[in-house]
Design brief:
Elements lengths: L2 H25 L12 H4 L32 E5 L3 E6 L4 E11 L12 E3 L9 E8 L13 E2 L3 E3 L6 E9 L4 E10 L4 E10 L5 E11 L10 H5 L9 E6 L3 E6 L9 E5 L2 E6 L2 E6 L5 E11 L2 E15 L4 E12 L2 H7 L13 H18 L2 H15 L1 H16 L1 H11 L3 H15 L7 H20 L23 H16 L8 H18 L4 H38 L1
Parallel strand pairs: 1-7
Antiparallel strand pairs: 1-2, 2-3, 3-4, 5-11, 6-8, 8-9, 9-10, 10-19, 11-18, 12-13, 12-15, 14-17, 15-16, 16-19, 17-18
Length: 573
Amino acid sequence: MNQTRTFLLFAMVAVAYLLWNAWEKDYGPQPPVPATATTAGAASSAATADGSVPGASAPAPAIPSATGGTEPAGQLVTVTTDLLRLTIDTRGGSLVRSELLNYPVTPRTKKNPDPAPIRLLDDSATHFFAAQDGLISANGPAPDHRALFQASTTSYTLDKGQDALNVDLVWTDPSGLRVTKRYTVHRGSYVVDLSQQIDNGSAKPWTGNAYRQLQRVVPPPPVHSNFLEKFSDQSRYSFFGVAWYSPEKKFDKLPFDKFEKEPLNLAITGGWTAMEQHYFVTAWLPPANDAETFSTAVIKDQDGPRYLIRDMGPSITVAPGQQGTSAARLYVGPKLREKLAAIAPGLELTLDYGMFSIVASPLHWILNQLHKFSGNWGFAIILLVLLINVAIYKLSEAQYVSAARMRKLKPRMDALKERYGDDKQKMQQAMMELYKKEKINPVAGCLPVLITIPIFFALYTVLRESVELRQAPFIGWIHDLSAADPYFVLPALYVLVMLATQWMMPQQPGMDPTQAKMMKFMPLMFAVMFAFFPAGLVVYYIVNGLCRLAQQWWVTRRIDRAEAAKGQAIAKG
């Protein structure tokens, strides 16, 4: 296969992939658009009309109904660490807001040096998302995620030199039952520890279950100011829904639009539940040895649908005068692959590269190592290009040697074309005999491109999904390698590289006129396509194109010198 056809193959595959992605997002199944909730308190209820636990297994007791009348509002308790600012509502004792202090919504600039941080958990009506937990019991009182807790203060801060901080919330019942809910935050960590300590001061045994759940609405789609901004928004192509893990079946996920068609109800030991979105994940991590029941539900009321994934723990019995404890962990933060792998088995799989994982995962690891060396993600991408070109140099060399020899054969190929005219079959047979005689491999140009195509899509996925490259600056006007070049400079540079490549690349004798026309339009096609790609991917292909140009020039020059020397030797001999 000559270089012309390999470029055409690459272009068609790339365009087909992008068109499929765009079609899926615009015309494929869409999650329902929620109505806005009235208040955070109203949206936080997870009970159905009869007060039962949606999606719970049959033996699970019902959530007790709320006390009569309007429930009094709880207090908001703020907890600040070096990485997180959390808000806990004492009405339920649940996390209703989380701000990731190291991840601003917009890049830091001179005009805006301190932009607002990303808010993952959110108590606003249109973006409601809460991490809830509680206890339920069939034979006595228990504080579910609507019970009113008491806090000693409304503000906690992890001070310098302090590695951990406890936040205690207390619920008491006239029967003598007392529950202390303790959240523990840690320096340098997005993991929040939760324990629910049950002190049974009543006269009879208490039996119940602990549960944890994530509940949210589907937020309204982002508003884009123009066509380019809409189609270069990489979050359009990322998974949005729930995920879970079990040691037996490993990682699985469910988009919100399939909740009612494929409800989850599984008994799992050693797993976790999560809600995923672009770059970030929130996950409940129960104890590894506890037998949990994982379930999903769509909660419908006048405010619209809310989506819930819950894990229900095993039964707990606490004798009178005794203590019992339920524990779990909550991760609320970015999809940092190496850190997630150290927190819980399989949690790193929430950074899901899909069908390209086999190539994307090693690329991500190599990029991380190169970033540690270079200190800049853009330079790490350039170093990656150089490594790949060194690794496939021999294949590229064979391609350019074949192209250079074919260029030498052009007069003889033109003669064959005149001889056989429109008889394409005889023309092809004669060409293959000529290739065989001159020891030219016509498919030598295929191998480098066939290697490059999976790298292209894998790197595209890495740049799209890896939070490390979010808002990662490079040079000058490139403030975010994961977003499109706002001024189209990089796509224009790649067009120049393509034009130079076409100028150096010999045209296949007898090429179909349609192919010849397509080759002329290919630079424009790639310019349009790359205008929507992450800037980091365009940087990769500019440098890769320059490397291939340099290799082609060097090989062609070497062959020309060898041919000249051979001609001089024949002339002298």
